[in-house]
Design goal:
The complex is a heterodimer of chains A (about 100) and B (about 400).
Chain A (H helix, E strand, L loop, with lengths): L2 E7 L2 H7 L4 E7 L4 H11 L19 E5 L2 E2 L11 H4 L5 E5 L5
Parallel strand pairs in A: 1-5
Antiparallel strand pairs in A: 1-2, 3-4, 3-5
Chain B lengths: L2 E8 L2 E8 L6 E6 L4 E7 L7 E7 L3 E7 L44 E3 L5 E3 L4 E7 L7 E6 L2 E5 L7 E2 L20 E7 L7 E6 L2 E5 L7 E2 L20 E6 L7 E5 L3 E4 L7 E2 L8 E7 L7 E6 L14 E4 L6 E4 L17 E3 L7 E4 L5 E4 L7 E4 L5 E9 L1
Antiparallel strand pairs in B: 1-2, 1-29, 2-3, 4-5, 5-6, 7-8, 9-10, 10-11, 11-12, 13-14, 14-15, 15-16, 17-18, 18-19, 19-20, 21-22, 22-23, 23-24, 25-26, 26-27, 27-28
The chains are: A alpha+beta (about 100), B mainly beta (about 400).
């Protein structure tokens, strides 16, 4: 089975929780999808479990979005393949928090 | 010489304030978990260096943090302190997983409660309001959550199990959220009886278990709430806080939405003791560490104006277990003051003289080292204070 090195950018609060830098690299075996990337992220950084996807429903938390290649992938099915540029490592998969002012 | 450690949860992080027994000079540590809402931080009576904190965010949900060194360092239970897990390691942490018990074994898995519009609404976990460590086991801790339920961990916060008998005892489908949500915010453990505890929910009321959390009963007789259709109903009262003195666990004091009350029989019957308070609306209530009949409240103007009455920050002390209150004002702002003191934001130490502490929505944390006679700010400009706890250390 082939594996790919996927770049993931985390928002600052999650970097702090994970004791990680702004960008982490994950090795993904098999299809590169939202689900496989997030599964690998949580396997490497278990303190992030429940912070991006709800523990029970596995749904994306409502104030988080997933971007890549200048596209909003937040509403794509979790098992849809991510863009080739993400699979090749040219572009990162971005987890970003909704902007709130005040 | 004894020391005190004050644990402060705010809208934007946690702070640890420490002093010697004089309680004049303070060291301030923080913000811990900067930028996150810290609803509550509390230390274990069995091991004062063991602290638990509820960290949450509208974006990222609930996090449980633990310190084993008195707040110097923190980690999420189940993950190595200060480190990411080894890349090859399996996921370990479920310390932020609060899954409602819907198993057939609990008899009546509840899936809905009453919503603001009177319709039934699914139970949805939102956050941990209050953490109550076990009196005897550092790894034991209870969590009161929104939507209202009680969880327990017996492994230092790594895993949580719901005590489902509370939601399932019969009135659960009629519980309705207050303006702040359907939150279980108060947990009192009876030091003389490990099977008895008291909890309170806004806006369901107070409940008691006598069998370690398996079964529960509402204890709201004597409460009168004009704002609900049946003012003396079994449930539906917006209880804001309950307090107890450890030497007399059958005597409870309550700050309800409106009204200050006491019970002398473990909640079987309440009677109003608001007495001469300028307003009997408020959130906090606490009991002097050495005088079980001396209680403290902070009157708030009204349910529609959540700030102190008349622009004056006044703590009221009753030395008679209610009714006869005296305003404590020395050192507190007596004009142009419009802060609130939230339900978990008052605490007492066990030094002699007893220290009283409270935090405001304006970011001040006050200390009285003489049981309320005079006050001084420890800090003035923190983010809005959500909770204050204090540990008396050797």
């Amino acid at each position: 089975m082939t594996s790919n090195m996927i770049r993931v950018i985390l928002p600052p609060h999650l970097r702090n929780l994970a004791h990680a830098g702004a960008e982490v690299t994950l090795e993904i075996e098999g299809p590169v999808t939202q689900r496989s990337v997030l599964d690998a992220l949580e396997a490497h950084y278990p303190m992030l479990r429940g912070t991006i996807r709800d523990h029970v429903t596995q749904q994306r938390r409502p104030f988080l979005r997933f971007f890549a290649c200048e596209e909003d992938l937040s509403h794509e099915p979790p098992d849809a393949l991510l863009p080739d540029a993400v699979v090749s490592g040219k572009e990162p998969f971005i987890v970003i928090g909704a902007i709130a002012g005040g | 010489m004894s020391k005190v450690r004050v644990l402060v949860g705010t809208r934007k992080g946690a702070f640890v304030l420490t002093s010697d027994g004089k309680r004049k000079q303070w060291d301030v540590s923080g913000p811990h978990f900067a930028g996150w809402e810290i609803y509550h931080v509390k230390g274990s009576p069995a091991d004062p260096n063991r602290l638990y904190a509820s960290q949450c965010s509208g974006w990222f949900g609930q996090i449980i943090q633990r310190s084993d060194d008195g707040g110097k360092t923190w980690h999420q239970p189940g993950t190595p302190p200060g480190e990411a897990a080894a890349p090859a390691g399996p996921p370990k942490s479920e310390s932020n997983k609060f899954a409602y018990d819907a198993s057939p074994e609990t008899g009546k898995p509840l899936t809905t409660h009453q919503w603001y519009d009177g319709k039934q609404h699914p139970w949805e976990f939102k956050r941990v309001w209050h953490l109550e460590p076990s009196l005897s086991d550092p790894d034991g801790v209870y969590a009161g959550v929104e939507d209202a339920a009680l969880f327990r961990s017996t492994d230092g916060g790594q895993n949580w199990q719901e005590l489902a008998g509370l939601r399932g005892h019969g009135t659960g489908p009629r519980w309705q959220p207050g303006a702040g949500g359907l939150c279980l915010h108060t947990i009192l453990l009876d030091p003389s009886n490990p099977n008895r505890m008291f909890i309170a929910i806004s806006a369901a009321g107070a409940f008691r278990t006598d069998d370690g959390g398996k079964t529960w009963k509402p204890i709201n007789r004597g409460l009168y709430s004009q704002y609900i259709p049946e003012p003396t109903a079994e449930i539906g009262h917006c209880v804001h806080r309950i307090a107890m003195h450890g030497s007399r666990p059958d005597v409870l004091f309550m700050q309800k939405h409106w009204d200050v009350l006491r019970s002398d029989n473990a909640g079987e019957l309440w009677k109003e003791v608001s007495g001469n308070l300028p307003t009997d609306f408020g959130f906090v209530i606490d009991v002097h560490a050495h005088e079980p009949e001396t209680i403290y409240v902070v009157p708030i103007k009204s349910d529609s104006e959540h700030y102190v009455h008349d622009g004056k920050l006044r703590v009221y002390r009753s030395r008679t277990g209610g009714n006869e209150g005296e305003a404590l004002t020395k050192g507190l702002r007596q004009r142009d003051c419009y802060v609130n003191v939230l339900r978990d934001a008052m605490a007492v130490d066990s030094l002699d003289k007893c220290g009283i502490y409270f935090g405001t929505t304006g970011g001040q944390v006050y200390c009285s080292a003489d049981a309320g006679d005079s006050w001084a700010p420890i800090v003035r400009d923190l983010p809005g204070v959500l909770s204050v706890e204090v540990q008396t250390l050797p």
